[in-house]
Amino acid sequence: MKTGESVNEYFARTLTIANRMRTHGEKMEDVTIIEKILRSMTSKFDYVVCSIEESNDIDTMSVDELQSSLLVHEQRMSNHIEEEQVLKVNHAGNSYGRSRGRGSFRGRGRGRGRGIREGNFDKSSFECYNCHKTGHFQWECPYKAERTANFVEADEEEILLMAYMENKQAENGEIWYLDSGCSNHMTGNKNLFCDLNESFRQNVKLGNDSSMSVMGKGSVKVQMNKKMQTVDDVYYVPELKSNLISLGQLQETGCAIIIQKGSCQIHDPKEGLIVAVKMSGNRMFQLKNETFEDQTCLKVSVSDPSWLWHYRFGHLNFNGLRALQQKEMVKGLPQIETPSHVCEECVIAKQHRKSFPRESNWRASHVLQLVHSDI
Hints:
InterPro entries: GAG-pre-integrase_dom, PolX-like_BBD, Znf_CCHC, Znf_CCHC_sf. By secondary structure, the protein is of the alpha+beta class. The chain is 22% helix and 17% strand. A hairpin with a 5-residue loop joins strand 4 (202-205) and strand 5.
């Protein structure tokens, strides 16, 4: 601190340097800044520094609190008010705040008190650095915000464990076009076939007089009116981008095709109406395929209740289960019977490692008969 420099000017200069050091990656804590300030104060603040070190805990003290305390003493010296302070531990609660440490003025103990008695000076001219009102200091401000700490908090959300069955649709099998100009059922999606003969080969000609190769023929399952229908003799044409159902081929199988009032109805001679498709805006009949894979629900059930409760309690022994049942400690626990065979998982979990032999069965009888090497 320079001679003639005020407390505010010195604090502003010191904090500017500290902030620059922090900007360049230096770790500057408040306790380091406070210790630096106390060591560099001019000689006229010697007794003030001793008072602060005696009556405050430097590790928990903030820079603002130190500045407020030094401003008080600077104001006193500027008004030429000579006041003798005696720092002591007052168990009766007369001193403001809390004070701990050695009673000696030059002692090394650290306390947590403010070391300032109320009523010794007029605080009406001092401005609070927190609310910017006069009459009190920042550390006693009634509007002082609570200190916050940076921490990581993990929100534990409630988890609902459930099982569900997912219906998978084929990527290119969502829409089938009912085409009266198509000679055969055709698709380019191999995944739609439930039965495919890849040895079948043929060529088909398109409307633009180009041809495509047929790489197989098989059956496809299509859900119509919430019922699975099997469409046979479907050509597999890998280059085809759309799925086509030939109305002529359906009629050859005995189905009746009725197109009227913007709807195409397919009637089976045995099942009756199997599907009715409305005409789209571009005068096409699009059958939205809901092709599902065969669903299989796999579950494991235990018929013996003794084994069931043995698994539920983490492989608790059967004597322990019987004790729980006899003392009615578990609601719904049935009569437990000891099974004739042992639990394989329990046997494996309780096995011990085979002990190492104390000495080997064979020992070398002369030099270099047995050589150990690290390769």
